[in-house]
Structure formats: structure tokens, C-alpha cells
Amino acid sequence: MAFEALVTPAKGTTPSNEIPHTRAGFIVGLVGVGIAMVAFFANLSAASTLANGDVVAAKTTLAWSFGLTTLAFGTVKFGIAIVLIGILVRIWFRLESIKETLPQLKSDGEDPHRIGSETNTDYGVATVTKTEPAPLPIHRMAKTMWAPMLVMGYMILLAGTVVSFVWSSNVGTDPGAAIDAAAWTQGLQFLGEALLLSGISFLLGSILANLRSGGGEVQRELGLPVVTLKMPATAKAFVVLMMMGLAAGVLQFVLYVVGTGSTDAGQI
Question: How far apart are CA 266 and CA 179, in angstroms?
């Protein structure tokens, strides 16, 4: 229900109406670029300070600029996610408009004996069914998880940015606290990035799921057997690699937290 509410246009909206997602995504992306520019000039300032021999001041600047840099990457990713949500809305429009015109295009159908079999197509092996296929488990997971992943990822990223200023404020005054804050900053921000990338991956999976089910609906409405391509090996590899990346993001966070219990002031 939550997924449908997020990707279904508001009542009364027509395909001719402008969908705000693309513009909003670009604006968020530009905000991310702006944050990156601030971090870039901060790093230049740190380099100049270091050249003048003030190591502590340089490390202080580099601490919070690291937080801003990672936040910038995450903000751009969040903008990309907003654009992808807009694509899902546009797919809904396309499918609804196609289904409205299909009754006039119905055929007598193909050989019913094909139903329940497999067939070779120019794009790979496909199954032939009477109705559109049920969503695959990964498609159901994608539709459920993309929004929580994006929200949690960006919130964790913001938390890491806040902690980066704690890290910065303790450089030169409390080395132990600075090391702990550095570990928390990096652990939180890399975890946030992993969640954001997972959310984008789930959004891509949701787009493919909608195209898969929508294509089946179109074929069924035409009175044809529904021909659906099997999930290719590349898609399976994508899922595995995405899960491995997410697991790595969680693992590094745990290791950073564990590392806060065994800090050495000389490592700052």
C-alpha cells in the first residue's frame, strides 16, 4: 500500500501534467554539488594551513570537511532516487493509458497449448502463462524496502555529518574523543552510503518489476498468452553483489564501533 501511494499520481493528475520528481531530483542533486564545493574549498584551506605548519588546524578542518564530502555524495544519490521515483510514476501513466486502448485491439489469441511451456525468444528463454506472472520475491522485497533504505540511509548520513563536527572540535584538545568521533563519523557515513545505494538498487528493481507485470497485463488484455522473460544471470548477480555491498557496509560500521574501545591517541 505504501509503495503504491508513493508511485501513484495524485487524483486528477493526467499525463500532460508536469511530474515534479525530475525537477526536485535535479534541485537536490545541485544541493549535493553545492555541499561538495564547500568541502572542496575547505580542503584547499586545510592544505594551505598545513603548508604554513599548523597541523592541528588542518586536521580540524579536514574532520568536518570529510563529513560534508560524504554528505554531498549521499545528497546527489538521494536526488537520483527522486528521479527514479518519477520514472515509476511515468510507468504507471503509460500502463494505464495503454490498457484503456487495448479493448479495441484484442486478437483471437494464440495457440492455447503454449500456455505453461517455455519458449526461446531473441532476448532469452521466456515462460508462457495465461495471466501476468506473480512478482518474484526480490521484486516484493524491492517495493517494500526502497523507501526505508533511502530514509534511513540519509538520516544516518546526516548523523555522521553532525558527529564529524564533534570530531573536529576535539582535535588538539581531546585526542581520545577525537579518535572515537572519527570512528563513529566514518562508520555512520559509510553505512548511510551503503543504505542509499541499496535503496537506489531496490528502486531499479521496482522499475523492472513494474515493467514485467505491466507487460504481462498488456498481453493479457490483448487476449494473448503472456510471455515473460526469465530472470537473467546478470540480474541475479546484481542482487548478490548489492547484498554483499550492504553486508560490507553493516560490517564496517560494527568494526568501527568495536574500534572505539581500543583507540590510541597516537593514531589521530
Answer: 10
Work out the mean pLDDT of the chain and round it to a whole number.
85
The CA distances from residue 82 to 85, 108, 127, 239, 247, in Å, are 5, 41, 33, 21, 24
Distance CA 207, CA 90 (A): 10
Give the DSSP letter of residue 174: -
**Worst-scoring range by mean pLDDT, 53-57, 130-134, 252-256?**
130-134
Domains of the chain by residue range: 18-260
Taking a C-beta distance cutoff of 8 angstroms, is the pair 36, 69 a contact? yes
Identify the top-confidence range among 4-8, 58-62, 219-223: 58-62
Question: How many CB atoms are closer than 10 A to CB 262?
Answer: 7
Dihedral sign, Cα of residue 4, residue 223, residue 135, residue 242: negative
182-211: average pLDDT: 93
- Residue among 162, 247, 206 nearest 4 (CA): 206
Distance CA 253, CA 239 (A): 21
Q: What is the pLDDT of residue 159?
A: 96
Whose grid coordinates read 553505512?
191
